[in-house]
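no rush on this but wanted to send it before i forget. theres a chain ive been looking at and ive put its sequence and its fold in token form underneath. i want to understand how the tokens follow from the sequence so walk me through it. thanks a lot i owe you, the record is right below:
>
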Amino acid sequence: MAEHNSQYLIELDGNKPPEELFKTVMDRLKYLNLKRAAVLTKLQNAEEEINDTMENVVDYVKAIQPCFDKALESLVRNTITEATGAAIEAVKEQLLTQLQAKRQGLPRESQREGSSPDSGEARTKSEDALSEEAAKPDDDSIEDMIEEVTADHPQVLSMIEETVQMTKDMSFENPYEKHAEILEEVLQEVAEGNKERFSGTPKYGGWVLDNCPISRELWLALVEKGIVPDLVICLSDTENNGKCLLNRLYLENKLEIDSKILERLLGELQEEKKEQEEARKAREEALRMEENQRLLEAAEEEIKGEEPEVHEGSEALQVAEEARGSLPKESEAPEVPGIEPESVSESPKDATAGTEIPKGPKEGLETEELTETVVLPEFPEDAYPEVPEMQPIKDQINSFNDLWKALEVTINDSSIQVLNLEIAGKTPEDLLQKAVEAMEKPFQYAGWEFGIEDYGEETEDFQAEAEIDEELEEKEEEEEENEERIKEKRRHLGDTKHFCPVVLKENFVLQPGNTEEAAKYREKIYYFSSPEAKEKFLEHPEEYVAHKEPLQAPPPRICLLGPRGSGKTVCGRQLAKTWGIFHIQFEEFLQEKLMLKTEKKIGPEFEEESEEEQLSRQELEELAIQTDVTLGGENARKPPEEVNLTEEEDAIKTNLMENEPLPPEILGAILSEWWFKEPIRSTGFVLDGFPRYPEEAQFLGDHGFFPDAAVFIQVDDQDISDRLLPSQIEKWKLKQKKKLERKKLVKEMKAKIRDDMISKRRAELIAEREKKQKAETRKEDEDISEEEPEEEEDDIEGILEDEFPKDEDEVSDEEEEQEARALERLRTELAERFQADVSTLQVIQEEFDKFLIPVILINGARKIHIVQYLLNTKLKPLVEDRASIFEKCYPIAPHLAQKMLHFTYKYISAFGFWDPVKLSEGETLKPMENAENRTYPVIHRHYVYFLSSKETKEKFMRNPIKYIRQPKPKPAVPIRIAIVGPPKSGKTTVAQKISREYGLKRLSVGGALRYVLNDQGGTELALLLGRHLHRGMAAPDELAIQALELFLMESTCGTAGTVIDGYPVTPYQMSLLEARSVIPMVIFELDVPSKEIFRRLLLEKKKEQSLPYPMHNSSQIMAVKNSNYRKNIAEIRQYFQEQHQNWYVIDGFHSKWWVWNEVIKKVQMVNKYMQIYLERIKADDTERPVTICQQGKAACIDQLCITPQELLSRLGEFGQFCPVSLAESHELADCSAAESLEFAAEFRGQYYQMSSQENLNKFLENPELYVPPLAPYPLPSPDMLPKRLTLSELKSRFPKCAELQGYCPVTYQDGRQRQVLALSEHGSFKFALETEVPGVVDSEREAGSPDARWVICEHPSNELRVVRSPLKYWDQKLPYKLPPLKEPVHLTSLPLPGYLEQGIATSLIKAMNAAGCLKPKFPFLSVKRSALLYIAFHLKAFNPKGSAYTRNKYKKKMEKFVERCELITYLSAKMTRKYREPEFRAIDFDHKLQTFLSLRNIDPINE
């Protein structure tokens, strides 16, 4: 029993009553997730199934008609037999009468008159034939004749001749009734055969009647007999005038029809030949007559010639007469050879296409053979020939159709279903499917409209559920809307829930159905989008519901809306990237359609220049032409080219420029690409910025473009202003800058034009002045004052100033728009646009509500990452729960679930009583159902799932498919946990919580003793315990362990497991547990400092009331318990760590929640290892065939409490060496030094150790490849394995020398013959190995035999290489020339930097790293001094050269130093600015504050 799988081993306490034992067994079986066994049924193979099917088919022609013919023959035979017997009797009576008459001497006439009238007419008929013979014989001959009268007697034959003639046309009086009787007998035989083959077969039915005659009388007879079928099937061909059926019949009778066609063609050919022959004869006769006439005329002309020519004429006449006489007479003209009918073969088989018909002459004439060929007319291969020979078949088909029409009326009058199947273009499988559908239709569910009666029935169901469902107590809702919502939630909806199934099937769109358009099908309610959809569903409901698999939901389709600047584009891109769907920005999509031609975006916001700017640009261009200046950059833009747009593109442009709605045709074509065409149809999308207008929202609903949800991002106008205004201001500034530059350029050009004009005018004025001066006469007085030229110059300048005044600035600085004014204007524009967007979105939201499209509101005023998080949170269920969007779960009460399972109304799921949600989250402990741990059953489809909490129930109901599509739970094993620790460490708290959460039995020694004394009072164990306790003595450990073992037989301990609280605490108790094989799977030690223990004790005493008598939790008792515990726990810990590796130390100084989480993590980890082990071991017996069962699967044995002794006793063929390394790389990987069984596995009952996780995975996947007989390399013999040598063993080898004279073989082999002497600084060998000489076989030699060799390695890694591949590094030879030995250098001879580097560099680095991580700051000391002190303590505490006492001493000092450094951190966190009363401070705050203040002027070193 110890070797049996403990999962199926149930130990019971025989002292308990049978009822309780039965309950224990049932709980255990329930915990193993066992289901009810199914009834064994023998399955048929394909041949047996076909035979059984054919036995139920009754062919009327083969089964009924032969029986009828046989019955008719029997009737005829019986009639003839009766007539023959009557004739024999009559002949015998006649002969006897003749005998009597002869004896009496009476004449024949008197005999005739006195003959009995009973002889009948038959006797009188044969009298004449027998009169002569009857008179002649004597008496003896007459007596002999009487005895010899038989059926062959002439008189008898003559008498029954008429009867025989009459029986030729004889039949039953009611032949159709006889047919019905025979059919009834045959069908009874079929029914009896069905009962023998199948149990539970109904009494009637189960037959198919084939080739039933088309007779109304037969049908009426069948109806009278009660032989009425459920379905009458008629195979007909009414399409294309019965072409398919005629073609089949032609192919079936092809030879016969072709022969008739050939006969007809041959006859027609003969008639044609005959007519041709007659015509030829007539032509020949005419020619002959014409020739004779011509000859006569020629002769007459010769006779009428001159006299000298008479002789010649007579000769000519004679020649003519001879010629006339030589012509044959008319009667003697030979006949043309004809065609005899006998020449055609009578057999139709010989008349085939291409048959040669020989033609022979008539008798008396010369024979001349003529060969003629008759060929069938050409017609398509898949069609019949349209020839007269097909008319009988057509008549036969028409006759059948007429009879069937008459019979169909009679069948319809009998209220029997008639199915007319068209055979044209259909396979037998198609026809069979149609017939099966017609037969199944009366038994299928039918849908009906949801009416008033259904609403009343639904109300009654809700009331009944409310009375029964005690667990689902929901709060009473005062508002009617909430009541309707709850009612809608509890309503049993169909496979598509509240979506229209017809739209989903046809368009793959989730369109919410209208509650007013509802129908019921298979006790489920379906909503529809329109009355037409409801009619389609009611006509063929099975096409729109799920059958074997749930309906597939379309991908997510989201409309993302919000005012301009709300961040919808950023959020839409993030959603599309997260979910892997398309992001479609509607207006960008429209822009892309136009940019292929316009090469720029269209819209008011994309117009770069206003009208004013365009006028300014035109003015600038004109000025540039006047000044002959070439404009560059933005000022020299080319005029836009004209673009020819299509009607669609023109409509899109109008929409972008003037906000005109798109035409429905264009909008429908755009949306169809996203809803109905790949790849977007099957991927999903986020539609950004659509619909923009209420009309577009109305278009979505009217044309079936329904999104899954519409997300509205809500923001304030201030948020929009803060987001968009900076960019608008920057854009305004850029425009202003361009405007100023353009004005400056215009001003410069105008100034240049003015200067040019002034210079031209000045030249003109000067020329006029000179001309005027020349024209004037010189005055006599030429004395001109010097001021006159100046005045003339002033006149010219004045004229120029008058003609060309200076232009003032067209727009002053005040008229230019200032930034403040622009800011206010832009803010106003944004506000107005925001108000327009908000009002439009409000109308769109109302349209969505009208179409029942879900609307999700998101606050977009927060930071963008917060908005994205909120958006993901809101839409996450829509995407993650997509597979379960059509799934419906119904919570029920636990007792109702058990009742449903008991009556098999529902079935338990594959998860049994496991919580599928917790299982998917990594839970390995199965919660136990009890009063504290309630279960929450949920019905999904036909199965019941048990959830452990309301939270997991809600998760499962939201997405059941996610939790159903996971591996089944692994086998559960009762788990044993032990929790030990000092008093007040929290053992009982943790044990009680485990017991409460997972249903494990909390077990303590005191509880086990009380159980035995109270419940097992009459047992020997109870008497022994009572004897010790009555004497005031403690219960011995031997009796306590027996009570503990007895308590472990409890039902809960055998199903869920147990938690042993505070046991064992002594090595003796530990040994007793080992002896009884009570080994916990995991043992937790709660490590709590003694100071914390007494602090908790002090707090507990403060809470308790003071009692006059002493308590067991006094400080002295706690000190003794703590001392005893710490005295023994080290030995216990060491034992379990070495033997079972199941000891875990938990820091109990943390909170109980932290301790609880750590304990549960370890327990689940250990339990997972155990479940995986049992699963793979279980697979050996169930999942593999018998031939492989003995090989089994490999399983990891880590965390299974396997002792080293058991490991050594069950090691496989490779011992402690890794079989994977040996098989793949031919290396000996020694795993004997492994501290745990992390890489160990069990296979075929033996243990194998691997060197790494990768090798373990390979071994677990294909263990057969690495063990005999498939293992490529066997393990060498023990004497060939390398062995590590200790220093004493190495000295015992003296005077034998090491190989390679002490040089490291690995360094020499792998380092390209680099010689390194493997000696330590003291001249002793550090790493030595020994092995036998390869090739020497002697299993009895010891390791120190003369043939053994040993080498010395430089480094542990080199030693490992030699161990792994000893043959690689053996048999090496050193060169003749070797480097000289290096003299050792003493450490003290090195300079100070070298001494520090070689001596304390490693320790100093570790100390400085620790100081850097801790950053110590001692109270009232500087940071530098604190760090130096910490480094000094660290060097002393971890000095490898120091003694253990010194290291421990300075470790304590360092811990105390660190503890005091942490006071600053603690006080800074707990101390507040305001004063707190002592009762509101932390418990140890005052103590630590006093400690901190006492450290002033304290030297940490000399303290």
